[in-house]
User: Fold this.
Amino acid sequence: MTHVNKYADEVKQAIENESESLRELSLQIHSNPELGYKEVFAHQVITDYLESKGFKVTRHAYEIDTAFIAEYESPAATAAAAAGEKVKAVGYCSEYDALPGVGHACGHNLIAIAGVASALGVKAVLEKHNLVGRVRLLGTPAEETTGGKVPMIERGAFDGLEACMMTHPAPVDVVYATMLSVGGVLVEYFGKASHASSSPWEGVNALDAILTAFNGIGLLRQQMVPTNRIHGIITNGGKAANIIPDYTAGKILYRATSTDDHVKLHKSLVNILNAAAESTGCTVKITKEMEFKSVSNNEILAARYTIYTEQLGVKYSPRSVQEALPSGSTDMGNVVHYLPGIHPMYNLSNLEGIIDKSISNHSIEFTEKAKTDVAHVATLRSAKGLALTGLDVLLEDGFSEAVKHDFDENVSNGGAEIARNLKALASSGGCGCH
Assistant:
C-alpha cells in the first residue's frame, strides 16, 4: 500500500531545520535527569523552546507543576471557529521524567523532542498555507510512576482532539507493540514490636507477613497465563535485627494483556495479601497507587504511520512478530482508551531495522544509547511519520472520521468496560484496612 502526502517535503524540511536545536534540547534533558513530578528543569527548557517557536504555551497546566500545554492554530482556524465552524485538532505527547539511579534509561529525553518535532512539523504546514487546523502538544510528567496523563485526562487536557499520538525509543522498530495494562499497590503490614531474643513470643511479626505475601505471589506465578506479570519490592523490612518488626511495606505491580486477566490478577493478589496478614496475626492496609490500561492502537492511524515511516526508510517485521515481542506498560494506554491514538516504538540503535538484543529499556546501556547521534536521527524520523499522520487527521477528507469509526468499533465500548472493571477493583480491596 502506498500513500503520498503532498506536504511531506515541507514537514521533513521543517523538522530537519530544527534538528540542531532539538538535539541540544534533548541533551540538556538527558544531562539533567529528574524524577516524576519533579521535572522542573525539563519543564522550563521545553516550554521556553516552544514559546520561542511561536506556540501559545500554558505552563504548570491543569494544576500539575510540571505539566504544560503548547498550542498553535492558524488565522484561518481562528476565523472558522469564530464563525461557528468545527476546527479539527490533533495532539502529541512529550514525556521527560527519568528513572532513579539510571537517569534517562527509557529515553524520555528523546520522547520529549519527538513530541516537539511532530508539533513543529504540523505547525509549519498550517502556518505556511494558512490551513484550518490546530495542533496541541501535551507535556505529560511522571510516566514512570503514577502517570501524569491520568489526571490530565480527568481534567480535560485531551478534550477536543480528533486523535493523540506519541512515539517511544526501544531496541526495535514496532508499531503494533503489545503494551500491557498495569496496576500498582502499596501494601503495609502492622504487627507488634518486641525483643527478638528475650521475648519474641510477645511480638507480632510484620516481616513474616510481607515475606508470606511474596512467597504467595511466587506460587501464584504457576497459575498465571504466560502473558501476565507480577513483581514488586519490599520498601520497609523493619528497623533492626533484634526487634520483631511491627511495620513493613512493599510495592507490587501486576500486568496483563486483557481486562479479564487484569481483574482476576488483582483479585488473586488482594487475596494473597489479606491471607498473609491473617496467617501471621497482622493487620494490612492495601492502597492502590496507579492503574494504566493496555494500549489499543488505532488501526487507521497505525496503518498510515507505518506507510509514512516505511517511506522514510524504516523496516518492520511482520505484525505477528511485532505483537509477540515483550514490552512494558504506559499511561498512554489510558489516553488511547479515551480517544483515538497510537504509541509506536522505534529503534534507537540503528536505522536498518536490526533488533539490538544487547540492550533493553531501563538499563544503563539504554541511558547511553539515548544520547547518541543515531538515536537522534531515529527520533526525528519517527516524528516525521507522526507529523504527516497528524496532518492527514486535520486535512484529508474522511480520514478523521475513519479514525473515529475504528475507535468506536474497537475501543470505545471496551474502554467503557475497562473503566467499570477498574472502578470495581477500587471497591473490592484496592484501598482500605483489612
Summary: Residues 181-292 form a domain with the Alpha-Beta Plaits fold (CATH 3.30.70.360). Confidence is low (pLDDT under 50) at residues 414-434.
